[in-house]
Structure formats: C-alpha cells, structure tokens
Amino acid sequence: MPENAESKRKQAVQVVAKVVLNATILATLLAAIPTFIDWKTNPGGIFQTEIGTQWTPVFETWFSWAWPFFFAFLPITLFMLDWRTEKPNKDHGMGPDEYE
What we know:
By secondary structure, the chain is mostly helical. The protein has one domain (9-84). It is built from 2 helices and no strands. The chain has helices at 3-41, 55-85. The longest helix is centred in the N-terminal third of the chain and has 39 residues, at 3-41. The chain is elongated.
C-alpha cells in the first residue's frame, strides 16, 4: 500500500474514532439527565422499592435514552470535528498572514 494511502487510512480511522468517542460521551451524559429524573420521581415504583434501587430498570431507561442520542450526535460531532479542523483558505476571506 502506498505511503500516502496508508496515512489517509490512518487519518480516517482517527476521525471515526474521535466522532464515535465524542458521540458516546455526549449521549452518556445527556441520557443520564432524564434517567435521573425518572429515578428520582419513581413513576409506578419501578425504580425504587423498600429494598433499594432496582438497577435493571434504571439501566434500561438510560439505554432507551442513550442510543437515540448517540445516533443523533454522530452527524453533529462529525460536522463539528470537520468545522474545527477545517483549514482556512482564500475562499473564506482569510489569508495565512491574517490569522497568525
């Protein structure tokens, strides 16, 4: 495999890894909010009993929020990563001497 193609492949793998990691972190944190609210309000008594917290319904509730957030954040994080790493050029109105 040519050296240039190998470096492009490595760069693509790094971008995918960053996007998946960022989407996972955002989805995990955001899904914790409605899960905590449900756990605290305890609708129907399914999250907490006299014995204590029932962790299976808590995890199921978290997961039911996390996977849609994850898939929603995938394109957003890809866009943000592309936007953040975009190199300025003459089409953007900023030459190399203007942003140094």
